[in-house]
TrEMBL record:
Protein name: Nuclease
Superkingdom of origin: Bacteria
InterPro entries found in the cross-reference section: SNase_OB-fold_sf (IPR035437)
């Protein structure tokens, strides 16, 4: 299935972007109707919130918490620089961009929206190749490597987080970039504790100390906010029954089966690039 090329502009003023979160205004609003799934949610400024395909960067704000901010901020700064957004000013609480060189041009490649009605997209700065404007294209690995998504992974600024529907050749290319970044100790991989394990000493340790897969962080943040003991986290995950596929053996299972909890220590038993999430 081809991807739709949707041209437009990127926007951050009045919003709180992070390393995989930015608003986009399509040059032609009718382009959104090319995507399968529920209709895209647009705000009063005709801006859509994008969901970047296949990557997840450290959280800068989630349930009044965050992950280690130096790495989260590095991912955001890379995104802004890659999209040509400069002179960014924040409010005092750093919860909203108050000014910037907003509305820089670019385009996305997208096939569908997700459950929250966000376009699932590969993101690109600049103009699409001549002849591809407003058309449908097949995304190969060479073109993938030009995307912000891939470029964030190869620099170690994002974790791979795959969902059903991502083509295997694209996923494999992204996983190869992850392996190289990990071997070189780039970005998050210099401090990652997802598989090695980490002691959860309250929400503060997740915010300030432990660099882990953002999806795992979000589940822990949700659980700890309710006041439960760490020892009950695996039962919490089991009750959620989030479907996953473990890629090496094509095993369909649930997230709780790849998370171990021993006392106050939590770890994942499979590497992030070896998992496909249901949604």
């Amino acid at each position: 299935m081809p991807f739709s090329v949707i041209e437009g502009t990127f926007h951050v003023v009045g919003y709180s972007p992070d390393g995989d979160s930015v608003r986009f205004r399509a040059r032609d609003e009718a382009d959104w109707r090319k995507l399968s799934g529920p209709p895209v949610v647009l705000n009063a400024r005709e801006h859509a919130q994008l969901r970047f395909e296949a990557i997840d960067t450290l959280e800068t704000h989630y349930l009044n918490s965050h992950q280690p901010l130096a790495l989260a901020t590095a991912a955001l700064e890379f995104l802004l620089a890659d999209l040509g957004i400069t002179d960014v000013e924040w409010n005092e609480a750093r919860t909203e961009v108050t000014s910037a060189t907003d509305g820089t041009g670019g385009y996305i490649l997208s096939r569908a929206t997700e459950g929250n009605r966000r376009p699932v997209a590969f993101v690109y700065a600049g103009e699409p190749p001549q002849g591809e404007e407003g058309s449908d294209v097949f995304l190969d690995v060479e073109k993938l490597r030009e995307s912000v998504n891939y470029r964030s992974l190869e620099r170690g600024l994002a974790y791979p987080t795959y969902y059903k529907g991502l083509f295997p050749d694209l996923r494999e290319a992204m996983s190869a970039a992850v392996v190289r970044a990990r071997e070189e100790g780039l970005g998050v991989w210099a401090e990652d504790r997802t598989n090695a394990g980490f002691a959860v000493e309250g929400p503060g340790s997740l915010s300030e100390e432990h660099v882990i897969l953002p999806k795992l962080f979000r589940r822990l943040a949700e659980y700890l906010q309710a006041g439960g003991p760490v020892a009950g986290f695996d039962a919490f995950l089991e009750a959620r029954a989030e479907e996953i596929i473990v890629i090496p053996n094509v095993h369909a299972t649930h997230l709780d089966t790849v998370v171990e909890v021993e006392g106050e220590t939590v770890r994942m038993t499979e590497r992030p690039e070896d998992l496909i999430f249901e949604g």
